[in-house]
Design goal:
The chain is α/β, with parallel strands linked by helices and about 400 residues long.
């Protein structure tokens, strides 16, 4: 039975794939700088005899053709970039690139797709269709590597009927998967605000516009955009995360800079909110006597899992893992550029449990101590290969 063969191969290849993951973890590269990582992926695909081409400078697209290759086309996606974080894990595979770390598990994602590719290629006479292997750069940095990969044609010639991606989940125990139909992750936009006046002496605020006071009013005021304008049943977040201005106790600065993020689950509300942010900021700042520069850097769209496509993947996960090992994932206000793919074709973005409290593996992504239970690699590889064979 093909299911058991896939499980057997995933188990057989797991030790070498753990070495692959450890190599990638020890040699992380930042967004859009994944040159060595891309070459590593190309080397592995070459060893497997899988044809590939470069995309979006540091991206790679591999192709595996099964029987009747025109009968269906499915895309499987992994991201390859790391984060500007100093790793604090005392492990043999600790990052060799100080200040750069695979703190979001993209080393795991890349390893899993390489492992699934190995199995799918080995069994290509046992399944029908074509599999596109998308190894993309720059998931961690606007505008998102997925947008560049799409512009470079990864969803064309042939166009996939759907795309699958996974993400490690440190809140989910090892041996578990989680799925969710519909909107599962938020859009993410960056907000940059500069408030300007001529500045002046702190003892004579009447002779200038107090940029610090104005910034304080603006931060509080912007929260009302969410609380009074957004449908409370639709999650949305606006957080101002940086205030820069002033350098001493008795000078009102001529400039204060604010930076923050805006998240939404509804694309219509998202752009309505952009307009409200601009209008409210301009009215308040200028009304208090200062000038305003405001830029909203539009980032990733909502990850919207196609209900029918995700339902089909979920059922296959139940078959492969057993229903007791598959659950519904929570809605998250984090963002993922996988959302670009789901705007073009049906997509399914699911979660792989990597948590193991007994081993002390409990730290969240984007932290210096993030790590995984490497037994998750065997599970992730087998599941993705099983979806590759069966998902339609």
């Amino acid at each position: 039975m093909l299911t058991e063969i896939i499980k057997q191969l995933a188990k057989q290849y797991a030790p070498e794939l753990i070495h692959v993951r450890r190599y990638l973890h020890a040699n992380p590269e930042l967004s859009y700088q994944e040159f060595k990582t891309a070459e590593f992926v190309k080397t592995k695909l070459t060893e497997l005899g899988i044809p590939f081409e470069s995309k979006a400078t540091t991206g790679v697209l591999g192709i595996i053709k099964g029987k009747n290759p025109d009968s269906r086309v499915l895309a499987l996606r992994a991201d390859m970039d790391a984060l500007p974080i100093v790793e604090e894990n005392d492990v043999p595979y600790q990052s060799l690139n100080k200040g750069v770390m695979h703190a979001c598990g993209h080393d795991v994602h890349t390893t899993i797709l390489l492992g699934a590719a190995k199995i799918l290629n080995e069994l290509k006479n046992e399944w029908e269709g074509t599999i596109k292997l998308i190894f993309q750069p720059g998931e961690e940095k606007n505008p998102g590597g997925a947008s560049y990969m799409i512009k470079d044609g990864v969803l064309e010639n042939p166009k996939p009927q759907g795309i699958v991606g996974l993400h490690v989940h440190p809140g989910l125990n090892i041996g578990q998967l989680s799925f969710k139909k519909g909107r599962v992750m938020a859009s993410a936009d960056e907000i940059y605000i500069t408030i300007r006046s001529k500045g002046g002496h702190a003892a004579a605020p009447h002779l200038t516009a107090d940029t610090v006071l104005i910034a304080s009013h603006l931060i509080v005021s912007l929260q009302q955009i969410i609380s009074r304008n957004n449908n409370p049943t639709s999650p949305s977040v606006l957080s101002i995360c940086s205030i820069q201005g002033g350098h001493t106790t008795n000078v009102i600065p001529s400039e204060v800079k604010l930076m923050g993020t805006f998240r939404a689950m509804d694309e219509v509300w998202r752009y309505k909110a952009h307009d409200l942010i601009r209008k409210q900021a301009q009215g308040l700042v200028e009304g208090m006597g200062a000038a305003l520069d405001l830029h909203i850097d539009v980032g990733y769209p909502t990850v919207d899992n196609d209900p029918a496509f995700t339902d089909a993947a979920w059922k296959l996960a139940d078959e492969y893992m057993g229903k007791e090992h598959v659950e519904e994932t929570e809605t998250r206000m984090g963002a993922e550029d996988f959302g670009y793919y789901t705007q073009v074709i049906p997509g399914c973005f699911y979660r792989l449990g990597v948590r193991n409290e007994a081993k002390g593996i409990v730290h969240q992504v984007h932290t210096p101590k993030f790590d995984i239970d490497e037994n998750a690699i065997e599970i992730g590889v087998g599941m993705m290969a099983y979806l590759g064979v069966n998902l339609r």
